[in-house]
Amino acid sequence: MERVDNYPTHEYQGLKLRRGHPLPFGATLVPDGGVNFSIFSKHAEDCELVLFEKGAKEPFAVIPFPDEFRIGDVYTMIVFDLDYENIEYGYRMDGPYDPQRGHLFNKEKILLDPYAKAIGGREVWGEEPDYSDDFQHRGRIVDHDFDWQGERPLEKDMEDLVIYEAHVRGLTKHPSSDVKHPGTFASIREKIPYLKELGVNCIELLPIFEFDEFEHSRISPETGERLMNYWGYSAVGFFAPKAGYAATGKYGMEVDELKNLIKELHENGIEVILDVVFNHTAEGNERGPYISYKGIDNKTYYLLTPQGYYYNFSGCGNTLNCNHPVVRNMILDCLRYWASEYHIDGFRFDLASILSRDQNGHPIPNPPIIETLAEDPILGNCKLIAEAWDAAGLYQVGSFPSGSRWAEWNGEYRDAVRKFIKGNGDVAGEIVQRIEGSPDIYGERGPTASINFITCHDGFTLKDLVSYNHKHNKANGENNFDGTNNNNSWNCGVEGETDDPQIQQLRTKQMKNAITILLLSRGVPMILSGDEFANTQFGNNNAYCQDNEISWLDWDLLEENDNIFNYFKSMIEFRKQHPVLRTDHFDTDYNRTGYPEISWHGLNLWEFDPSASTLTMAVLFAEPNDKYDTESDQFIYAAINMHWEMHGYELPNLPRSKEWHLVANTGMEQPEDIWSAGNEPKIDSQDEVLVGPRSIILLVAK
């Protein structure tokens, strides 16, 4: 028996049609070769579906939606017998043009579907577009027929993650990366053995939703190079992967290429978190282009002043109206789609504090969108991570209105560790809090609410943090005014590159100090890709526009700085071996080892004043064995000396069967800087350990 709703009821210029289904929004395949098109607009008065053959400048059909094809505020129709793999589509909306009331309808503009699952127009990265084409970003139709072969999201415990933040293009674009298709999803698959060797179990990708790398493109007056929208924090569409990141993008296969990458990462025990940008779009302010939302329903999608101008809490020209029910549902639909269709493990929300603003731009205590995402059943096991601030000064680290469901990028951790490493003893008490997982900030939520990081894409790399006192952003063409001036960096005596062996040695030591503190800290550590082999951006702390060797990882440095890579790798492995470093609670009380789970010491045992300014401190972790076997209890002691002089530290007494063995000494060079499990040498004195200037010694009891 054939379904009645498979029969066309209308015909227009030879195309067979019928009223469609309002949900889901977007373009969806239906039985018998039809495509269901559905789009919302509350304020439009008329809508047309515009169909193109792929790449054609002129449409082959422009189909008005009959009145009976409108259901509430949704225009929907099924078009039969389309060769969906070879068409592109958009919409024309007619309605009032009244900017003061927030309406910008223009029937001449062809608009991208906000729910488009694939987008044409930028299929090959950096290929100059045809600017004479009025329809730059074109919706395409996707058939979700990928065979996952039983693979599913990994659902690792938050406390067990070691996150590796990476840019899809920058990770492998450099000629030294030695991959078949540099700068693509496919090339990351070739780096999976490397990621496993390093020991990370989660990769966080900078934005991969379709964006326009030519947005604000210009020639740098300093270098003569073309500057691009390299980072991609400016989405054109939220449901489509960036075709230019796919080796097969020119063939329209970016969806499958990305799914193959995710499938293989999961098969190798590596989760995938996406950096998502729901705070603004690529349409900019009043002078920005019509791409999608502005022409479909400007008043619904954006935060507008009473005069009809765009609020700019994002610093990028406009702000999405995230707590409007329609926009809120779009964001929810988007995340559900990526979680279900792409098996994504979690999301990091750029400038997430914007999600807490109401339709007038005011912060609200219980934002509907944040609660909705936290309680959604499909996202129930997805990691949700907030960058808990926005570009208009709303800073919510520790106060992001999320309950226990959300984690946060801990900017307080970054700042405190940077200050302490370079020699600011005033933050010693804060360092205690940060290493314990920031109980002063996340007391009710637990340490897994804290994403601990010292560097990220936004700012200096770890190598640059110890090589530059000041940013060097002239190549960005903004007279060095862009990027933060508050870097808390120290160049160790010379600005930039140097052949001085003493300064080189000190910089290496400082990098090892940073990663040691990071991986000993409770919470979730995040590493910037390339830091593990001292990658540099040559002092640029805002490389958002640099599609060149400033931003691309130089893999030749892996061989040159193998000592740093080995130290990173070994510290990650050490963290994995010790659950006491990865707990989801803040207990510091005595446990069945007879010691506090965490205790703090100065040069003398039990003599540490967290209110005093100091550069010398020590921490003792006591880790009971799960089988109540006291012989197997673990003790970890880290003597941290950020002073420029050597100091002796009194060592804790141990149960009679145990002695202190050396795990790491950041003041030593390879191979005596770190030791693998089972090979740690016993130290000569069990009563005191001497720690060199600006060094950390890590011990384990055996």
Automatic annotation (TrEMBL):
Belongs to the glycosyl hydrolase 13 family. The keyword rRNA-binding does not apply. Keywords: Glycosidase, Hydrolase, Transit peptide. One of its GO terms (molecular function) is amylo-alpha-1,6-glucosidase activity. It comes from the Bacteria. InterPro entries: GH, GH13_cat_dom, Glyco_hydro_13_N, Glyco_hydro_b, Glycogen_debranch_GlgX, Ig-like_fold, Ig_E-set. This is Glycogen operon protein. GO terms for biological process: glycogen catabolic process. Its EC number is 3.2.1.-. PANTHER family: GLYCOGEN DEBRANCHING ENZYME. Residues 165-575 form the Glycosyl hydrolase family 13 catalytic domain. The keyword ATP-binding does not apply.
